[in-house]
Amino acid sequence: MYTGWDVDGRLNEFESQFKVMKEAFEGTVTDRKAMEEAIDLAKNRASDLEREKQRLMDQNTQLQSQLDQQRQEYHSLQLEKQSTVLEMEAEQRRHKYELEDLQRERKHQVDEVRREFQGEVDQLKREHREALEAMERHYRAELADEQSQRARELQELRSKLGAEQQDMSLEMLRKEREVQEMRSLMEALKLDLDREQTIKGGLQQQIAEMSTINITLEERMRGLRAKIDFLESDSKQQSDSFANMEARLQEALRVAEEAREKLIKEETERRILFNKYQELKGNIRVMCRVRPVLDASEGDEAKIAFPDLKTSSQIDVTGPEEKSSLGTVSRKVIPFEFDRVFDPSMHNEEVFGEISQLVQSALDGYNVCIFCYGQTGSGKTYTMSSSDGMIPRATHMIYDTITKLQEKSWTYTMEGSFVEVYNEELHDLLTPGRESDGRTKKLEIRHDEARKQTTVVNCKTVALDSPDKVETMLRQAQSNRSVAATKANERSSRSHSVFILKLVGENSATNERCEGTLNLVDLAGSERLKHSQAEGERMKETQSINKSLACLGDVIEALGRGSAHIPYRNSKLTHLLQYSLGGNSKTLMFVMVSPLEAHLKETITSLRFATKVHNTHIGMAKSTKKLRAATPESGR
Ligand SMILES: Nc1ncnc2c1ncn2[C@@H]1O[C@H](COP(=O)(O)OP(=O)(O)OP(=O)(O)O)[C@@H](O)[C@H]1O
Fold it and tell me: Which GO terms describe its molecular function (predicted)?
């Protein structure tokens, strides 16, 4: 430490302070410089910033001006758009006015055309009216002429009719007399037949007695011969007695031969009388059979009555409900009459009893046709081909008869064939559909006009020389038919089957020959299917069935009318049966009826068809029986 008077120390201190201060000053100057530099720098930056601000402001101004410009542009565009809209509206208005003008113009034109046409139409109407009036006047005049002419003709016809009526009444009286005569002839023939049958019985008895006598005589002759041998001595008396016995024996043999000849003659006469009697009964007969209800599940039973038990020829069916115009509901009873009606209690045996005479006629040389007609399930097959049906019964009867006829010098051959008509094509039921080489057999119908016989070419024919053969044949036909049935779904009810039995008889004693055919026909179900239900194959079947049944009706009708042309060729069935329908034949139609209410409509249709057939009268049948010498050689 120094005192106040220490100048050097104080100077030194001053000097050091000065130095410090100087250094501080120099530091301050440096700082100031630095600060000034910083200020300059800041100033520079401020001016830079100012410039930047200025630039940004300029840029802003520029953008503002751009924005203004765009706004202006937008505004001008807006204006432009407005003007375009206005222009378009103006255009639209212009179009609308044009359109209205056009419409007015068109309307005007249409009105003008309409006015023109109206004028023309009025003119035409006037002309037509005038023409019509002229025509009316003309026709009135013609009508008046015609009327007066017709009145004259009517007058003439009336007087002609009066004369014809008179002739007709005379003719009717004559016919009645003829019918009366025929009836008495028939009665006489019936009596003759009864008488002949009694005679025949007597003769048969006589012949039996004669054969017994014959046997006794032969035995006695043998005894006598033994005696003769024994009586070797041979006295005159003995030889006389022997000669006497020989003469008596010869006489007995002669009587026996005479009786046999008489019997043969009687048989020929019986045939003639029997067939005359059949002819008088008419050659087309219709019988009706109603099958029983099989069980309760079949449904309600229709109201069917059999009013006349004595004649068994009537059937009354209560028809469906009918509503009158007043709204009352009623059911009509429809009566039908046939040659015979079989009620549900009747058996095949009784039915056969009625047709056995026709089977006899086939043996006598007639062509016979027995049909079964009716809807599916009405009993056609049951009646025709069941084990005790008409086919087996007919063949058994034929065997029995031809065996008996042998003692009257008749020998018969019997041949059977069985065909089916399906979709208007013939098929052989005795040979399967195809031959060994795979081809189907084409059956062909050939007619022999002279012999009135039909042959089916390519169809198997079986010689029926024993009853077993018939049964085998029926079984074979049934199996061939059922093969087809599985393929074509119950085909049996949609095809017609025809059993053809040819019978050829020859009599060695009288030199007679006869050739008859028995056709037993099981027709397809007669129900008419509604067209809406039938399609394709079913439609074809339905059309074929309807066609062939209609053709059968047409043929019978044409025969009844005595038409010159009979349309046999319109269906395969009538073509096949040509010689068994018509002049040289006897026809029987069974109409089969179902007892069920559900089948009532079809039942009535079937009975009406059968009535039409029943009202038909076909001319006399003729037997093909001839003396052999006069028969052309039949190369069967
Ligand atoms: N009289 C009858 N007595 C007893 N049963 C019968 C009689 N008739 C028919 N039937 C029976 O009624 C049914 C129908 O008969 P069936 O087959 O014979 O008719 P259908 O008319 O031949 O028919 P489809 O046209 O289908 O061949 C069978 O079961 C048959 O046994």
Answer: ATP binding; microtubule binding; minus-end-directed microtubule motor activity
